[in-house]
């Protein structure tokens, strides 16, 4: 089944009153955060293209590295789980999960849990008078008390400097490639040794391209997935988790905010290990004797001729290629987020482009939250995977609901004009001798309306 274009995304008007929260991004993290915010009865808007990374920036035919049960989006009642989706669509869960199956599940989740996604991009976010002012790509403007940045990884695509001078048509980052059919019969050099590079190499070979994989370190293969095959003793020694077997992983998964409390040096050591590039074992046979692998090599020089690129590798080998595909990963750096206005950016404290975040994912700007891969260096490796949605979403929603209660409390305590109007109009016979005219009521702020309603 082709799942492109299957979303419920009507373009909507923008209300005058500020939202309680705007979620920027409609991937697994944005949808999960929105589901929990909606579950708390908040006034929420979600902007962004639904599952954009998965629908438009992953290769056709891709298989998920994560287990299906570790790839649930999160809603407050846990009603829209992958398990239920399998049951209702009469399919058998298995490993690895095809991309299209995940997409069908995630779009089913969106339709039920977050039916209103506005697919417009946010082009600017400013912070004014305690609220956020967001400008949309079509010129509309919305105001919100809180903003959840769930913008994913694509803004962070890493294009190493050495490839920058080459024509864009010749060099493509893996995140820009979905349809590989046009590469049939072409010669393609793939750079990198992680899951993206190895999987693109396999898929490109499978569509009929001639592929060279150039990786500066030997490929590190993940152990074969033996989920369901491991005996009790093995499970005791190293329990299964959504991020691989082992007690450390078990702790990361089941005590999801422990990592946050670790000292920086320990976090850095752990992140260095967890951020290493690995490739799934099931890709081995798909590249062995099919793709020319140049391990321990880098591309040192390039020459363009006849629309092709002549690449010289560090061992002196030369390859004349039609395209270079960069499977060179992603680097979090909030300076690369074009929608954050300079004044807002100046107020976000960071360490080398990584925002400082409080225990509820809130940045140093009150009401501004960063989730997903942007929060990974602070909250740990689980937050790079869909698995992290289930602990992130309730926590962010709780924090925003708490802030909203506080704001309401403050607003109710500081409504002098209405207080005076109502109390001075009070007759001995009753509280509403002179009801507030309806046109006043309609222009009253929401706090005024609550006061009016309460007094009636
Ligand atoms: C090739 C590949 C395969 C992966 N496979 C797995 C896997 O098997 N299992 C797993 O758990 N993880 C996998 N991941 C990691 C994956 O990125 C995350 O798990 C997940 O997508 C993170 O969700 P997210 O909502 O944070 O971001 P994304 O899914 O990237 O969503 C980002 C959202 O932000 C929106 N957006 C961006 N800019 C704007 C803007 N200016 N205004 C409004 N909206 C905007 C986009 O439209 C989109 O809706 C994979 C990653 C890659 C690159
Ligand atoms: N099927 C799937 O589920 C799937 C598919 C793709 C991606 N993913 C996920 O997406 C995330 C990102 O994966 P990824 O493979 O894109 O990134 P990655 O794991 O970070 O791998 C990046 C690779 O690029 C190399 N590299 C970086 N800069 C380079 C340079 N200047 N010159 C040469 N090589 C360079 C790195 O080499 P070093 O190792 O030497 O640094 C590494 O091999 C991972 O979480 C992964 O699991 C999942």
List the helices and strands and how they pair.
Layout: E1 19-24, H1 28-39, E2 44-47, H2 52-56, H3 82-88, H4 99-113, E3 122-128, E4 131-136, E5 141-149, E6 171-173, E7 187-191, H5 195-206, E8 210-215, H6 232-237, H7 247-254, H8 258-261, H9 264-274, H10 284-287, E9 292-295, E10 299-305, E11 308-313, E12 318-321, E13 323-326, H11 342-347, E14 350-351, E15 354-355, E16 368-370, H12 376-379, H13 389-413, H14 416-424, H15 438-443, H16 446-455
Parallel strand pairs: 1-2, 1-5, 5-16, 6-13, 7-8, 7-13, 8-9
Antiparallel strand pairs: 3-4, 4-5, 10-11, 11-12, 14-15
Bound molecules: flavin-adenine dinucleotide and NADP nicotinamide-adenine-dinucleotide phosphate.
Could you characterize the architecture of this molecule?
- With 456 residues, the protein is of the alpha/beta class.
- It has 3 domains: 21-156 and 331-409, FAD/NAD(P)-binding domain, CATH 3.50.50.60; 181-326, 3-Layer(bba) Sandwich (FAD/NAD(P)-binding domain); 417-455, no CATH class.
- The chain is built from 16 helices and 16 strands.
- The protein has helices at residues 28-39, 52-56, 82-88, 99-113, 195-206, 232-237, 247-254, 258-261, 264-274, 284-287, 342-347, 376-379, 389-413, 416-424, 438-443, 446-455; strands at 19-24, 44-47, 122-128, 131-136, 141-149, 171-173, 187-191, 210-215, 292-295, 299-305, 308-313, 318-321, 323-326, 350-351, 354-355, 368-370.
- The longest helix has 25 residues, at 389-413.
- The structure holds flavin-adenine dinucleotide and NADP nicotinamide-adenine-dinucleotide phosphate.
- Flavin-adenine dinucleotide (FAD) binds at residues 24-30, 47-49, 52-53, 58, 64-66, 71, 121-122, 150-154, 196, 339, 372, 384-387.
């Amino acid at each position: 089944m082709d799942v492109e274009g299957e979303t419920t995304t009507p373009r909507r008007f923008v209300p005058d009153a500020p939202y309680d929260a705007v979620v920027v991004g409609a991937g697994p993290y944005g949808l999960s955060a929105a589901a929990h915010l909606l579950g708390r009865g908040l006034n929420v808007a979600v902007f962004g293209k639904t599952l954009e990374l998965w629908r438009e920036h992953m290769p056709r035919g891709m298989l998920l590295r994560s287990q299906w049960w570790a790839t649930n989006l999160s809603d407050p009642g846990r009603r829209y789980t992958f398990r239920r989706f399998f049951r209702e669509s009469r399919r058998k869960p298995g490993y690895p999960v095809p991309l299209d199956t995940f997409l069908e599940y995630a779009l089913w989740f969106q339709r039920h849990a977050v039916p209103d996604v506005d697919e417009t991009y946010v082009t600017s976010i400013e912070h004014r008078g305690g609220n956020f002012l967001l400008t949309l790509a079509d010129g509309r403007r919305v105001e919100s008390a809180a903003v959840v940045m769930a913008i994913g990884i694509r803004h962070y695509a890493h294009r190493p400097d050495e490839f920058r001078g080459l024509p864009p048509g010749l060099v493509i980052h893996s995140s820009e490639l979905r349809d590989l059919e046009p590469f049939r019969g072409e010669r393609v050099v793939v750079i990198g040794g992680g899951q993206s590079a190895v999987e693109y190499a396999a898929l490109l070979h499978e569509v009929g391209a001639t592929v060279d994989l150039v990786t500066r370190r030997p490929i590190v293969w993940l152990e074969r997935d033996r989920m369901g095959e491991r005996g009790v003793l093995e499970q005791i020694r190293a329990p299964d988790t959504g991020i691989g077997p082992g007690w450390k992983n078990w702790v990361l998964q089941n005590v999801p905010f422990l990592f946050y409390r670790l000292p920086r040096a320990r976090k850095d050591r752990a992140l260095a290990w967890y951020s290493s590039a690995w490739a799934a074992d099931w890709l081995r046979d798909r590249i062995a004797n099919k793709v020319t692998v140049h391990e321990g090599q880098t591309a040192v020089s390039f020459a363009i001729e006849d629309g092709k690129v002549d690449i010289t590798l560090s061992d002196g080998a030369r390859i004349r290629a039609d395209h270079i595909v960069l499977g060179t990963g992603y680097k979090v750096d909030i300076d690369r987020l074009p929608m954050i206005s300079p004044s807002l950016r100046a107020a976000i404290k960071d360490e080398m482009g990584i925002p400082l975040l409080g225990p509820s994912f809130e940045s140093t700007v009150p009401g501004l939250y960063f989730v997903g891969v942007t929060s990974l260096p602070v909250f740990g490796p689980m937050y790079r995977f869909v698995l992290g949605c289930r602990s992130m979403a309730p926590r962010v929603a709780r924090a925003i609901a708490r802030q909203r209660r506080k704001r309401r409390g403050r607003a109710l305590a500081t409504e002098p004009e209405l207080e005076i109007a109502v109390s001075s109009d009070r007759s001995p016979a009753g509280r509403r001798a002179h009801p507030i005219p309806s046109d006043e009521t309609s222009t009253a702020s929401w706090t005024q309306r609550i006061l009016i309603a309460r007094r009636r």
